[in-house]
Structure prediction request, 319 residues.
Amino acid sequence: MPTIATNRLSQQRNQRRTRSIPFSPAMALAAVLLLPLAASASGGKTPPSAGVAVGPQYDTTHVYVAPADLDAFVNSVIATFGGKPSKRSVANVLPVPSSTEMQYILTPVGAFSIFAYQTPVPFPFGQERTGYLVTDMDQAIKAARSAGAEVIVEPFKDAIGMDAVIQWPGGLKMQLYWHFTPSTNPPLDTVPENRVYVSRDQADNFVTRFVRFARGKVVADDKHADAGAIGRPGETYRRIEIESLFGNMRVLVTDGHLPYPFGHETTGYQVHDLGTTLERAKAAGVKILSPPYTAHDRTAAIVQFPGGYIAEIHSLPAR
Prediction:
């Protein structure tokens, strides 16, 4: 774990490198609009066990929609989960020429980063499922590589910080990001889970390496979980649960024989009352792709929001 002095030195190096980059009006606008939703990379102490993680309230699910679907998607998320959207801006947030409308939504059950590109989306963007805030980009890249991740997009600067994209054994891609200016997101009511489908060939390799990077722990490993939860009632599959300061992860180990829509959902959202949430969702134009199914620790449904984003929504048994 780097010392605070080391983090500050790294931050100073990053800031010095950034001073020479001219900001366009669009980039400046993006910085102003997104700063209230940003978090600091090096502004305070991080528990030793946390590694480079900051907290699950800063982890965002990346959602790409067509510009024509942006309003409907944002409205349906807020109607379903509550929360507050940022102002909308247009900027280039990539290391190559591009333009996107972008908006953040902070909800009690997780954060969304929404991109509605006005230009073709450069490869490999759009394949990363989530964005994880890190305390220090240099240290995060070093830790990811040391744990066995591949850096498929080297760190680059945007209007308010730095970003990179990494890939894990098994194919999971995620963005790491770091911000220049500190701010605070409120704690979540419930922590969402990153839902990762992996093959039997790579499951143990992926879990070992991600846990090392995240400084997390495996809290459950059920080799005979009810496969009705992934559309195959009467069968079993392996389900692994990981907890870390990055948030929760549910690893679903399958043979790849998945009926639609399973495998398309990237995030699972925990709500207090699934039935009530689904009624609000349907009224906002959300489709129920797979009806509620109860297995082990939850009742869950798979839904599709306007614009095509597919998610799992679940509630736990009343205690």
